Amino acid sequence: MQEHQQHIVEEYIAAYNHKDVVGMVKHLHEELIFENITGGEVDLRLEGKAAFRQQAEQATAYFSERKQTPTAWKFEGGLVTVELDYQATLAMDFPNGMKAGEELKMKGKSVFQFAGDLIIKLQDIS
Asked: Residue 44: which CATH number?
């Protein structure tokens, strides 16, 4: 089970890195809950695979390149936690003052909760 879940998460990350939205949503449950958590606060919450797909398609325009690199894995029941190094090059100016062409680097983690073979909850935490 662990190997299968890791394979699914690796496929998701590879699709994310290639801005392949179809590949990103391939293993998502129709009732997916997605949360982006920054500094302990949920700053984005989406419900449903369709809402996630729409947001993922929009986000592909934000970065000319982006890459998540797993640095550690933890398996606990139906949860897979992946520690990540993240780097991206901005494709546009952002409201926070960051400019197109700037590089963003940070560490974070993603928590994938499974229901059978599908991801039912995904939390991106930084």
From this structure: 3.10.450.50
Q: Which long-range contacts (CB under 8 A, 24 or more apart) does 58-63 make?
A: 60/19, 60/21, 61/91, 61/92, 62/90, 62/91, 62/92, 62/94, 63/88, 63/89, 63/90, 63/91
Whole domain around residue 54: which residue ranges? 2-125
Encoding tokens for residue 53? 């797909």
Q: 90-122 pLDDT, tens per residue?
A: 999 988 899 999 999 999 999 999 999 999 999
Q: Give the C-alpha separation, 89 to 48, whole Å.
A: 28
Give, in degrees to the nearest 5, the angle at Cα 44 between 36 and 57.
Answer: 85
Are 65 and 84 in contact by the 8 Å Cβ rule? The answer is no
Measured distance CA(126)–CA(58) in Å, rounded = 20
What pTM was computed for the model? 0.93
How do residues 22-75 score in pLDDT, each as one tens digit?
A: 999 999 999 999 999 999 999 999 999 999 999 999 999 999 999 999 999 999
